Amino acid sequence: MTRASSRRPGPPTRTERGIPEATVARLPVYLRALTALSDNGIATASSEDLATAAGVNSAKLRKDLSYLGSYGTRGVGYDVEYLRYQIAREIGVTQDWAVVIVGIGNLGHALANYSGFGTRGFRIVALLDADPDLVGERIGDMEVRDFAQLEEIVETDRVSIGVITTPAGPAQEVCDRLVAAGVTSILNFAPVVLSVPDGVDIRKVDLSIELQILAYHEQRKSGEAALPQVPELPAMNGLTDLPSVGGGVGA
Amino acid sequence: MTRASSRRPGPPTRTERGIPEATVARLPVYLRALTALSDNGIATASSEDLATAAGVNSAKLRKDLSYLGSYGTRGVGYDVEYLRYQIAREIGVTQDWAVVIVGIGNLGHALANYSGFGTRGFRIVALLDADPDLVGERIGDMEVRDFAQLEEIVETDRVSIGVITTPAGPAQEVCDRLVAAGVTSILNFAPVVLSVPDGVDIRKVDLSIELQILAYHEQRKSGEAALPQVPELPAMNGLTDLPSVGGGVGA
DNA sequence: TAGATTGTTAATCGATTAACAATC
DNA sequence: TAGATTGTTAATCGATTAACAATC
């Protein structure tokens, strides 16, 4: 997450487009909760209702919403449609963002079809792959196009978001091409740390990392008192021959 | 993330199996970086080297590693293999965790094939779906089985991790079944907030939320000074007829 | 010994939460 | 007016970071 902005020193001047990252990450959750309430014909909701629907506590929700403005009514609650629109506008999904997906393997294929992706606010304008065997294949109502056409597509369709679903190997190169072509937001599914220049935002979705975090907690359940673990080892003395993990964790 | 633990009050008694969540979330990243270094034949690395490979700063990396113990050598750095094993053990991927995937649509299908999933430490023991048309289908060397067999499979294979790749609708019910069957960690790809009892850990991967977070920042790039936005609206007065977002954001 | 680098301390920053005055 | 609920304040908690003493 890289942000090139002019921040003068001094007390944090809130209001100057300063919504905390943690709050930004929850706005889409609130948006979804509001949509669900709206679909159920609910016109008004209290912070408590909304918080329950979003899976957070109400204090946090009210604090989060307070960064956007005063959209509620004391003693009453929030108008669902009104708040939904305000949040959608704040996030920026009242307009449509053009997206390209690069790497049409299993995952890219799945994302191309994924309806949740078709969430209002985003439009997949191209599926790209460098493999000639894939180019031309139809997926839904789209056709896989040659990665070589990237620059042209980004310019024509004013693409600002790129999704990388290639293997780890080519991911950095793909990323560089995307950035050079003018893409300024990247969602990375490849299991590598990508580096991007300032001004380009990058987010990462990583399957095996999520599983490993679960494993960590899982380990601490089964064992409980049974595993005091980390048996206060003496400093290693050049010893490198340790029980092997088995060849290579990580993808 | 629910943790049922006995925490006495007083100063934070570190060492009592208390690795901060933020650190836990980075351990898999370090593990992957170490594996990459190891694959490149690098035997020793400084915190600076490692931090670069992991995409963090070296102070944070050293602080994180300090929660695990003293695995480095002052003046020298870290033995790559040794540290890799220690982190793998701490995370719990020196053993194998049995995983079931529920919901074999596009995404479940992709995950079933996803090699990154096959990361050492995890073993997919079943692909489950309730749709009779899918049951029996072969995916790689596995066959889709009936969701009705869940309980049996969880018991037989001692499954502790469940991955939910169903649509939003059935996700909570699937989750309840998983929990009732004895699964205590869940990775949820369905765009809903799942509720689970204490003692069950849940993590969420949400495509459209990631895209929306990117959109938020993207919006603040293009516009910059051009969008003072949030035009200090008067409190709404029951007005519900606002420009529609278009039907429903969120899946 | 001199140089390098860890492990830890302490300062700072950001996020969460409870509580309540403002106000519908 | 009495009851409900927001928006905000202030306290607390956790995470990040710089700096450096310890030590190889």
TrEMBL record, chains A, B:
PANTHER family, per the entry: REDOX-SENSING TRANSCRIPTIONAL REPRESSOR REX (PTHR35786), REDOX-SENSING TRANSCRIPTIONAL REPRESSOR REX 1 (PTHR35786:SF1)
InterPro entries for this protein: CoA-bd (IPR003781), NAD(P)-bd_dom_sf (IPR036291), Rex_actinobacterial-type (IPR058236), Rex_DNA-bd_C_dom (IPR009718), Tscrpt_rep_Rex (IPR022876), WH-like_DNA-bd_sf (IPR036388), WH_DNA-bd_sf (IPR036390)
Organism in which the protein naturally occurs: Kribbella hippodromi
Binding-site residues for NAD(+), renumbered to this chain: G103, I104, G105, N106, L107, G108
Quaternary structure (record): Homodimer.
Principal subcellular localization: cytoplasm
UniProt DNA-binding residue ranges: 29-68
Family classification: Belongs to the transcriptional regulatory Rex family.
Compartments where located: Cytoplasm
Record's protein name: Redox-sensing transcriptional repressor Rex
